[in-house]
Each structure stands twice: as C-alpha cells, then as structure tokens.
Amino acid sequence: MTPTSVIINGLHRFDIEMTPNLHIEGEKCEGGMWLSQRVIKIDSELTGDRFERVLKHEIFHAYLGVTGLTELLPPHVEEAICIMMESCSSELYYEGFE
Ligand SMILES: [Zn+2]
Questions:
Q1: What is the full DSSP assignment across 61-94?
Q2: Which CATH number among 3.40.630.30, 1.10.10.2910, 3.40.50.720, 1.20.58.480 corresponds to the domain 5-91?
Q3: Ligand 1 mean position to 97 CA, how many Å?
Q4: What is the pLDDT of residue 65?
Q5: pTM score
C-alpha cells in the first residue's frame, strides 16, 4: 500500500502524490519535492524497490529542506546525501509504520 503522507523531522507533514508522467521544469523525473507546498510527487509508474528508493530520496530532500541544510549545501552534496540515504531503514520516518 502506498503511503499518502510522511512526517518530516517530527513536525512537518508532507503529502505524497502519485503523479502520472511526472515532469519537472520540462524534464521527465521519477520524483520531486516541493518544500513550500509540503508535497512529494512520485511517478505513478514506479513500483516495488524502485518506488521505495525514489520516495526515500525525496523524503531526505524534505529533511534537508525543513532543517535549512538545503540553503547551506552545494546542490551536488545534497544530491549525494539523498542518494546515500535511499538505503536507510523506512522505520526512521514513516508514520504508522508496521
Ligand atoms: Zn535528488
């Protein structure tokens, strides 16, 4: 079952939206995060392990955004952190994780 929201840093609820044919600024993407709107969008074609990894990746962009670290990090460093964190345990952040 696909989660519909996630609580970031214990305070910030982000909606998770499955989006057909996701494009960001004209480019096809698997996922994206909009900090001011508190939304994470994932391409609806993704399933299984790939879905999990892309969702985790975007969740960690959200963590870096709400904590202000996005403003301090060069974009390539933030991206490397999110790629690293894709493999972390989901128990760290899913609301109602079972
Ligand atoms: Zn990224």
A1: HHHHHHTTHHHHS-HHHHHHHHHHHTTS-GGGT-
A2: 1.10.10.2910
A3: 24
A4: 97
A5: 0.88
What tokens appear for 19 in the block? Answer: 């989006």
Residue among 57, 68, 58, 65 nearest 15 (CA): 58
CA 16 – CA 47 distance, rounded (Å)? 14
Q: How far is the CA of 70 from the centre of ligand 1 (A)?
A: 11
Spacing, Cα 58 to ligand 1 middle (Å)? 6
| Amino acid in position 10 | G
Ranges of the chain whose pLDDT falls below 50 = none
Contact 32, 59 (CB under 8 A): no
